[in-house]
Amino acid sequence: MTKNQGLVDRSMQAVWHPCTQMKQHEQLPLVPIQSGEGVWLTDADGHRYIDAVSSWWVNLFGHNNPRIKDAIKQQLDTLEHVMLAGFTHEPVVELSEQLSSLTGLGHAFYASDGASATEIALKMSFHYWRNTGQPQKDQFISLQNSYHGETLGALGVTDVAIFKDTYAPLLSQSAQVPSPDFRLAEAGESAEAFALRCADALEVYVAAHHQTLAAFIIEPLVQCATGMAMYDSAYIKRAREICDQYSVHLIADEIAVGFGRTGSMFACEQAGVKPDFICLSKGITGGYLPLSTVLTTDTVYNAFYDDSTVKGFLHSHSYTGNPLACSAALATLAIFKTDDVINKNKQTAAALSDKMQVLTHLPIQHMRNQGMIWAFDVKTDNASFSVDCFQAALAQGVLLRPIGSTVYFMPPYIINETEMDFLVQTTKASIETAL
Ligand SMILES: Cc1ncc(COP(=O)(O)O)c(C=O)c1O
What we know:
Blueprint: H1 3-14, E1 33-37, E2 40-43, E3 48-51, H2 54-57, H3 66-76, H4 90-103, E4 106-111, H5 114-131, E5 139-143, H6 152-156, H7 161-164, E6 175-177, H8 191-209, E7 213-218, E8 222-223, E9 229-230, H9 234-245, E10 249-253, E11 277-280, E12 292-296, H10 298-304, H11 323-338, H12 341-355, E13 364-370, E14 373-378, H13 385-395, E15 398-399, E16 406-409, H14 417-434
Parallel strand pairs: 3-15, 5-6, 5-7, 7-10, 10-11
Antiparallel strand pairs: 1-2, 2-3, 4-12, 8-9, 11-12, 13-14, 14-16
This protein binds pyridoxal-5'-phosphate.
Pyridoxal-5'-phosphate is lined by residues 113-115, 118, 147-149, 219, 224-225, 253, 255-256, 281.
């Protein structure tokens, strides 16, 4: 038996894998990864795969990154963890200060996963309105096809039927407004004009319901989980104006798009907008350790600052502000500073976009790019295209994870020209096999 097979068998016996119908692994075996280096993952039998999805969109500067690794090792020799209620430590203070100066928001509240950050932002918004004497503002809205995580609160503002429908009786209801996904624009309509048309629909909804609305939560610029739906920044700008006009919070879920993914440090910057809450996770530690955070305005923070305990934000997770995770995040931010990452990514993005021109000969549509995210939709009648394409790519050394018929690249930022060529050529061959 190969090492791969041994590990797969044991995993099938012992592990319940996420977002998976486990029985499907009878046909589609798990891939046991043993090590990582740069953009490459290596399995237990020594096969290598380019990690074109950055391990679920978390990895920024490659696997086995020496700088992030060293920072964690150093922290490990000092303090691995201490509870953050009643205690503090230098990595969490330093990280909060740096995130504050990057976002223009403050008082970072920590958790470990993206969905927990969504929960925190929703609860804080709801609680803010109670603390300020408007408890009737207890409803949330999100975009059609939104994804904000899968815990119950986050699922309540998520709009993906396959994740949500089973749990519908457990969820708080929220309303969805039209998505500015520019694939849905009329023929001849610009992405900006379509975004503004969708913002008009938002305004109609908010004007009618603002008295009961706490917050509008968005994934700025790219709705990743629904298939890398991209939209014009004019939507975010108008959403900010509408939320201001009607006293509704704007929550920017930058869990997937933050930390340079869309071409700027944070996606909201491209709209010149400061949200009331920003949710960050995934790339925050360069893909090393689980960490998420929510930063908010002084106005929100001050509404909780009171002699009354219950006016405080009584929410916690055991590993809140874990020092090892904070040290990984600080090393990640240091790389942004010293390596001029945002500018360098522009060259990387131009090079990969250029190489992707060969894919335009395939039956595809809606080729799109935003910063370090690329996507296109394959025209195919094959109902199992995503699985077939995944398997064909894997057999040739690329980890692709199409979403339905949408093929996308979200590679680590350090991908080089040779790796890009390999990625594009393998993707082309895999699509041709899977059509
Ligand atoms: C926009 C967005 N929000 C929230 C989440 C949930 O994050 P996590 O999977 O860490 O709970 C994700 C995950 O993909 C996401 O893309």
